[in-house]
Amino acid sequence: MNTFILHSQSLTLAQRLATELQGELEERQSHFRIHTILSADLEQLRELYGVDINLLSKTFNYSEVALMVSDMDSTLIINETINEIASPDIASKVSSITEQAMHGNLDFTSSFKSKISLLKGTKSETLEQVYNEQLNLSKGALELINFFKQIDVKMAVISGGLSYFAERLKDQLGLDSYRASNIEIVDNCLTGNVIGKVIDADAKAQYIHELCAQYGLEKNQVVAIGDGANDLEMMKIAGLSVAYRAKPLLQKNCDVVINYGGLDAIIDFF
Ligand SMILES: [Mg+2]
Questions:
Q1: Which domain holds residue 160?
Q2: List 71, 227, 231, 264, catalytic entry
Q3: Which of 55, 115, 226, 244 is the least crowded, having the fewest Cβ atoms under 10 Å away?
Q4: Is 231 part of the annotated catalytic residue set?
Q5: Number of domains into which the chain is organized
Q6: Annotated catalytic residue: which of 41, 52, 73, 227?
Q7: Are residues 34 and 135 in the same domain?
Q8: Which CATH number is 210's domain given?
Q9: What is the mean pLDDT of residues 195-203?
Q10: How far apart (Å, rounded) are the C-alpha atoms in residues 1 and 35?
Q11: Confidence of residue 136 (pLDDT cuts 50, 70, 90)
């Protein structure tokens, strides 16, 4: 028996899909579940109906989730923070490097370094200004965080972007931990240099290993959420991997795909 989660409150759509899948419909508070012996081409259904639909795993134990690790840019927040810092004269150059790296077409570390060198001379106040005026949380982010707080799930933000933003988000949202890339600032100006290791795909996976060791957890108690190629490695080790409005490469490699709804769609699994 398969259980599909339809992240929608449309009864008409739920009935139509239940008929198509020859399944039994169950109405839940925020979504529908369809129980059926049939399997389904979820990618095709998502595209056809413009709706989020996922398979409820038979092997993953949702009640044992104890850690959520989320990417920052275009996942927890809607922005790509480094693009936001770039002044108009270099903005298109910076965002085109970001886009290529997100699709996995450019090595993350070298693309990060070339973007940071383009930002040389940027005033450090710009970071604060971007945080205060331009950063927006993704739809459903607060609902998901509040839900995980209620059930005592630890939360961490991991980012290949700047630690300035990751740390402020962690504090603002009351998360437990963060890790991100560091850049050099001298006399209130970005020097264009990176400090230490850039947080690439392997470093993100490594962070999950470290957090599990720190909290005494197994990897199958971890929910990882991301959107780009840099999230691929951490998805491979997390118990539940979620592609949020993600690039095709990542969608193909995740257990859960959310393309239309908010991050709070993840609550439907619990
Ligand atoms: Mg991202």
A1: 63-269
A2: 71
A3: 55
A4: no
A5: 2
A6: 73
A7: no
A8: 3.40.50.1000
A9: 96
A10: 7
A11: very high
CA distance 4 to 40: 9
Chain position carrying tokens 């990542």: 250
CB 76 within 8 A of CB 231: no
* 192 and 227 inside one domain: yes
Tokens, residue 127: 């970071």
pLDDT tens for each residue of 3-61: 999 999 999 999 999 999 999 999 999 999 999 999 999 999 999 999 999 999 999 99
Contact assessment for residue 265 and residue 140, using Cβ atoms and an 8 Å cutoff? yes
Q: Do 6 and 78 belong to one domain?
A: no
pLDDT computed for residue 223 by the predictor: 98
Q: Are residues 199 and 261 in the same domain?
A: yes
Our answer to whether residue 89 is catalytic in this structure is no
pLDDT in tens, 69-91: 999 999 999 999 999 999 888 88
Q: What local confidence, expressed as pLDDT, does residue 95 receive?
A: 85
pTM for the whole thing? Answer: 0.95
Q: Which of 90, 32, 91, 60 is nearest to 265 (CA)?
A: 32
- Cα 109 to Cα 35: distance, rounded to the nearest angstrom: 44
In CATH, what number is assigned to the domain containing residue 32? 3.30.70
